[in-house]
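FAQ: What does the model actually see?

It sees only this:
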Amino acid sequence: MEQFLILNYPPKDLDEICRLVEEDDSFVALLTGEIYRIENYLLSPVLNEFSAVLDRNVYTRITTLVQGDTIDPKMIQDFRWAAAVLAFCQIVDIKFQYGSSLREYASKRGGKLAASDFESFYRADNCDPKAIIDFAVGRIDRLDISSISDLDPCETVPSPEEFEDQIYEFRLNYIFALKIALLGMEKEQSFERVIEFIDWMERDFICGAAALQFANLYFSPSRKRRMFKKKTLDDIKNAAWDLALIQVWRRCALKGNAEYDPVILISRDKVVKDIARRLVASDDAEFKSHLVDQWGTKKKEGEKIFSRYWQLHEKFADRGNRRELFPDEVLDAMTADLERQVQSRIEA
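And it is asked to produce this:
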């Protein structure tokens, strides 16, 4: 039976919102079908509630808009894209999970500013979508702040201290990222660096699938620009927060799919999206291809990496895939040692 959908927005505006969001391939989700069509969310007969995990590059642009900050004309298309993402999610009622983005922000700017940004994002998320749409589609070049000024404040703003707590996923991935950066400072860059990373995971740490995909991409011929930027400790922390975000999304997405509550990762970062998609392979053969295809014509080197990884995977499977939890003092000691090694190489 044919269904009709009536929305109180001009069809051209909705089409433009969908185009802007799809243009950057902004969504990563465990869904099939046209994920950039608004009607598919509103007419779904089996799915319950949609939610989204936001990369900080989305979050900060939206909060900048509603805070009335001046936007660099060169960056205005980035902000229109972020507004389109917000409008899309408002129209189809996708709920946002703020956590990881703001903890990253708090790690650099402090918990008070993160709490302030939380309130700003809340105002944006609860304002009239028409105001956001006007900016996204280019009718205005600055958001009308009066359109959101009369909203009631959020009653459940987390404390600054909550934002400043480093989540366990970040602490683990910072250690992974430090080790990858350290290996990246070796003169010879080849698939052997990835093998060395896997050996280190088995010998000294734990197996991290997201970190492995990052290392595999970083040392392969397919390496993306600025994965570590200048390899300073701050740059390495940025990569660690990206990996933590991917892990948080993957865990939420798998749980959500089991309960018919899909969770979408929204990002503009090509590396983040690439790794996230490679982490949710449908079977072992697909996971193998996700490692091997990064090596292009050097396929045999990619196959050696997969073979070594698979040995480690089976070893952990024999243990029941139990997640090993490290005490704070162990993580602190490993972090301090790797930071010292990386800093020493930077200064050499």
